[in-house]
Design goal:
32% of the residues lie in helices and 22% in strands. The protein has 15 helices and 23 strands. The mean pLDDT is 95. Among the domains are: 165 residues, 3-Layer(bba) Sandwich (FAD/NAD(P)-binding domain), CATH 3.50.50.60; 109 residues, Guanine Nucleotide Dissociation Inhibitor, domain 1, CATH 1.10.405. By secondary structure, the protein is of the alpha/beta class. A seven-stranded mixed beta sheet has the order 8-7-18-19-20-17-21, sandwiched between helices. The two termini are 17 Å apart. A hairpin with a 5-residue loop joins strand 18 and strand 19.
């Protein structure tokens, strides 16, 4: 073995690829071990199974205008972006308490629901002022007190109509994959500061034209040693080196390395044997922190029936389907796809169904809202991230107490091991966060080992 430093990265999602790419460009030898047969992790585009060349994102999808790392990669790789309408699009059309229509239909709801939703965003912006720096939530003056509370505690105390609160609950289920009582109020406040500080500014959102999986594939193409189907089983370390054991094509293998980046979610990390064992605090963190359940059902219809309803495809509901949007807004063809996005408890329930059962349930619930739509279905695909063994959920859920318990530890290396992934990032839950974490770890490694 040569004396040049070598890093082994466990996981070829965006976090692992970002770490490897930064280190490779700095002259390090890098090896990525990826359990799946593809790169990208939860950045995964589905193309097969749809007509007219249309596609939909099974995992990460949206890039916000403040996601500088993702935007830089899009530009570097010569890719194009398609705009997505502002976040208010998901609260424009609602199905709540057996009613279905636009939020500003006062006669339908019996009060000005649209105005109260605007007030809801102002309340969230106000909550965000409790966290002056969303990158340092533990420095917030009331961090401990906020983290002991849940989003439900805060929501209960707001002087808003029950249907307004139900709208926000549906948003929590779809955006944070959490029931209100499951989400730390400190984490919600942090997000209020990061994304909702100006309720008048919706920001701009984008999708990658042609599919987001182009980004991880191009990142991987630059790297000299990416091994697919390599399931890591153990990491052993001493004062001078580390060894990573993995199974590939039925054979047991081992790599000697300078240091290791653990760029996989907490659930799969629990399947790796560490020798010596992880510090007790890290063991507790990995066993208690989880990614939340979420499913996507992507339904292709022979025609875009929603245009007949003067509807653009985005819907928020108190039904199990929870949330929908249209990924084919900028794609050509007579057909169109609606994505049904279901998180929190309903996401767990959907995950327990068979793929066909989940598709039928989603199609049926949409047909109840838009009669006749079921007869137009041509194709459908679905994924339950909780059931994916190398993800075990959508993205990290920080319950009451978790932020103060784990925020620093998630970013703290031990011995020769570094942790990356969206669960360790400021922009947690986003592809931007995965890149952020990988680049952070790469900088830490270069400072320590160069």
């Amino acid at each position: 073995m040569t004396s040049s430093p070598h890093v082994t990265i466990i996981g070829a999602g965006l976090a692992g690829l970002a770490a490897a790419r930064a280190l490779h460009h700095a002259g390090w030898r890098t090896t990525i071990l990826e359990a799946r047969s593809r790169v990208g992790g939860r950045a995964y585009t589905l193309r097969d199974g749809f007509a007219e060349g249309q596609y939909a994102e099974a995992g990460g999808e949206f890039i916000e205008d403040i996601h500088g790392r993702m935007l830089a990669l899009v530009q570097e790789f010569g890719l194009a972006l398609d705009p997505v309408r502002g976040m208010d699009e998901w609260t424009r059309r609602l199905a709540l308490a057996g009613k279905h229509g636009e939020a500003d239909e006062v006669a339908l709801w019996g009060f000005d629901l649209a105005a109260e939703i605007e007030q809801m965003w102002r309340e969230l912006a106000k909550l965000g002022t409790a966290v002056p720096d969303p990158a340092q939530p533990l420095a917030a003056p009331q961090a401990q007190e906020l983290d002991r509370q849940s989003a439900a505690d805060w929501l209960t105390g707001l002087a808003l109509h029950p249907l307004t609160k139900q709208t926000f609950t549906a948003r929590l289920r779809s955006e944070y994959l959490a029931e209100p009582h499951q989400l730390s109020l400190l984490e919600l406040a942090r997000w209020g500061a990061l994304y909702y500080s100006d309720p008048e500014d919706e920001g701009a959102s984008f999708r990658v034209r042609g599919g987001v999986d182009q980004i991880p594939r191009r990142m991987a193409a630059e790297l000299p040693d990416v091994r697919l189907g390599a399931v890591v089983t153990a990491v052993q370390s001493n004062k001078s080196r580390s060894w990573v054991s993995f199974q590939q094509e039925g054979r047991q293998n081992s790599i000697e390395t300078t240091c290791v980046v653990l760029a996989i979610p907490p659930g799969p990390a629990r399947n790796i044997t560490f020798d010596p064992p992880l510090p007790a605090a890290h063991q507790t963190m990995f066993h208690k922190l989880n990614c939340a359940p979420v499913t996507k059902v992507m339904i292709q219809y022979r025609r875009r029936f929603w245009e007949e309803w003067r509807w653009r495809g985005s819907l928020l509901t108190d039904l199990p389907i929870t949330c929908t949007w249209q990924p084919t807004m900028s794609q050509p063809g007579d057909s169109g796809i609606l994505t049904v996005y279901t998180g929190a408890q309903a996401g767990a329930d959907f995950s327990a169904m068979s793929d066909q059962g989940r598709i039928v349930t989603a199609v049926t619930q949409l047909d109840q809202l838009f009669p006749g739509s079921a007869a137009l279905v041509s194709h459908a695909r679905t994924i339950a991230w909780l059931n994916e063994p190398f993800s075990q959920g959508g993205y990290a859920l920080f319950k009451p107490g978790d932020v103060t318990a784990y925020w620093q530890m998630l970013r703290q290396p031990w011995e020769r091991m570094y942790v990356a992934g969206e669960h360790t990032a400021v922009h947690q839950g986003y592809m931007e966060g995965a890149l952020e974490s990988g680049q952070r770890v790469a900088e830490e490694i270069k400072k320590r080992w160069n």
